[in-house]
């Protein structure tokens, strides 16, 4: 898709250049012709230019009208859009009075690409949101499991987190697939050997069959990077082989929900750590290698800033850069790979301390924390055009200045539009941390 943009840009530039040269030649011929001929040539020249301008203006208007129509149709029936709440010009009163409201028809989807929602066992609000807005999601991933090493054995921990009643309620409420997250904590030095690899895959697939899951979300790349193994080409290949074999095994296994449906694998990947890909980064070649074995890639495009470098959670330009870097300029192939990306959107925020004396600091905040800050400090919400995020400042009881970045309807809508422009799905971390009216955008 990026390649198509470049090609159009290049072609457009060439056409502009040709038109300039062509216009210059026509003016030269007009100046060298007899007076009567000059007038005729000039008339036709200006007629031609006027016609071209008219066509361009018409096409721009049509494009704008079509885009506006498409945008409005995707938001039809949305409470937050009908109330004019999706705007950069927002104040704390609007947030406090409107955040718990949503459209009456909560089953209507506005974002038609895949939507993966994470739920954490330590935040019960996420379980409630998963049931209430079930039809807004295509995939639900409760954060339940870890695969660990115990001497020479592999143990899958986490079944104690499972809420069977909740799973039953979800299946009655809608069709969202349930894919619990599994984090590979086992040492890769042993795990990636063929015998242990086969054993690990068998443990995971058996758990899916016994519990009636629709597949899993696997997180391992960040762990492998932490172990420092990905710079070795042979071990990196073994790591990729593990993911491929797991995906192929899941795809050969029928879902209990639907015998014709195969189990799915979604793989968690992080954004590159710098402008240039490092050895431990998950890059375009890795994406291509796993594209057939993986049903979706949960891309963690958040946590851009930290207490040592306070700022926005996920600047829009950074998100665009990450997508271009991953999907590259592979034309139609880029489009097919983009359809497997689940762009990460955070439903949490950060409260950063700006005091140099205290050494800085900060904490993650969720919806209820954000609302409490708004009620207490009644701040002026500011819009940062560069990052596409809202933020505000306040002073705490010790008179230390803070900067708070938390998602807004406007910031989320911009990221949904960016994902839509690429043909990507989205992944939300995590739905218990957001405000209720966020779901009206989905």
TrEMBL record:
Keyword Cell cycle on entry: no
Gene3D superfamilies: 3.10.50.10, Glycosidases
Keywords per UniProt: Lysosome, Membrane, Secreted, Signal, Transmembrane, Transmembrane helix
Record domain GH18: where: 113-442
GO terms of molecular function: chitin binding; oligosaccharide binding
Alphabetized Pfam families for the sequence: Glyco_hydro_18 (PF00704)
Membrane listed as a keyword: yes
Stretch list, region Disordered: 1-29
Intracellular or extracellular location(s): Lysosome; Secreted
TM helices/strands, residue ranges: 39-60
InterPro entries attached to this UniProt entry: Chitinase_II/V-like_cat (IPR011583), Chitinase_insertion_sf (IPR029070), GH (IPR017853), Glyco_hydro18_cat (IPR001223)
A GO-annotated cellular component: endomembrane system
GO biological process terms on file: carbohydrate metabolic process
Family: Belongs to the glycosyl hydrolase 18 family.
Name of the protein: Chitinase domain-containing protein 1
Biological classification of the source: Eukaryota, Viridiplantae, Streptophyta, Embryophyta, Tracheophyta
């Amino acid at each position: 898709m990026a390649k198509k943009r470049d090609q159009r840009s290049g072609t457009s530039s060439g056409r502009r250049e040709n038109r300039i040269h062509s216009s210059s030649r026509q003016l030269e011929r007009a100046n060298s012709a007899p007076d009567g001929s000059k007038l005729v040539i000039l008339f036709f020249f200006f007629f031609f230019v006027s016609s071209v301008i008219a066509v361009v203006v018409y096409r721009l208007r049509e494009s704008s009208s079509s885009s506006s129509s498409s945008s409005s149709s995707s938001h039809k029936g949305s409470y937050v859009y009908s109330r004019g709440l999706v705007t950069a010009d927002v104040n704390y009163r609007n947030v406090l009075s409107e955040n718990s409201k949503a459209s009456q028809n909560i089953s209507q989807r506005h974002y038609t690409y895949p939507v993966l929602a994470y739920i954490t066992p330590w935040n019960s609000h996420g379980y409630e949101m998963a049931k209430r807005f079930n039809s807004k999601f295509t995939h639900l991933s409760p954060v339940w499991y870890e695969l660990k090493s115990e001497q020479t054995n592999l143990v899958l921990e986490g079944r104690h987190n499972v809420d069977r009643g909740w799973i039953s309620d979800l299946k009655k409420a809608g069709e969202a697939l349930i894919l619990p997250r599994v984090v590979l904590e086992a040492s890769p030095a042993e795990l990636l050997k063929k015998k242990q690899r086969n054993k690990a895959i068998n443990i995971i697939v058996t758990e899916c069959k016994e519990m009636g899951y629709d597949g899993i979300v696997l997180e391992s790349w960040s762990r492998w990077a932490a172990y420092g193994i990905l710079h070795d080409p042979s071990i990196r290949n073994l790591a990729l082989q593990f993911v491929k074999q797991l995906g192929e095994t899941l795809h050969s296994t029928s879902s209990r929900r639907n015998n014709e449906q195969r189990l799915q694998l979604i793989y968690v990947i992080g954004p590159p750590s710098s402008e240039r890909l490092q050895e431990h980064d998950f890059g375009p070649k890795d994406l291509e290698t796993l594209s057939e074995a993986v049903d979706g890639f949960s891309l963690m495009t958040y946590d851009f800033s930290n207490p040592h470098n306070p700022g926005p959670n996920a600047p829009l330009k950074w998100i665009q850069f990450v997508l271009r870097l991953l999907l590259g300029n592979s034309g139609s192939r880029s489009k097919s790979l983009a359809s497997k990306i689940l762009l990460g959107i955070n439903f949490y925020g950060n409260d950063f301390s700006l005091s140099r004396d205290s050494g800085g600091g900060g904490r993650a905040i969720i919806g209820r924390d954000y609302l409490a800050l708004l009620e207490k400090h009644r701040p002026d919400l500011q819009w940062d055009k560069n990052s596409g995020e809202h933020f505000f400042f306040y002073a705490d009881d010790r008179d230390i200045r803070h900067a708070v970045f938390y998602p807004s309807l406007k910031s989320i809508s911009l990221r949904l539009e960016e994902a839509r422009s690429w043909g990507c799905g989205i992944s939300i971390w995590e739905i218990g941390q957001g405000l209720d009216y966020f779901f009206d955008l989905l």
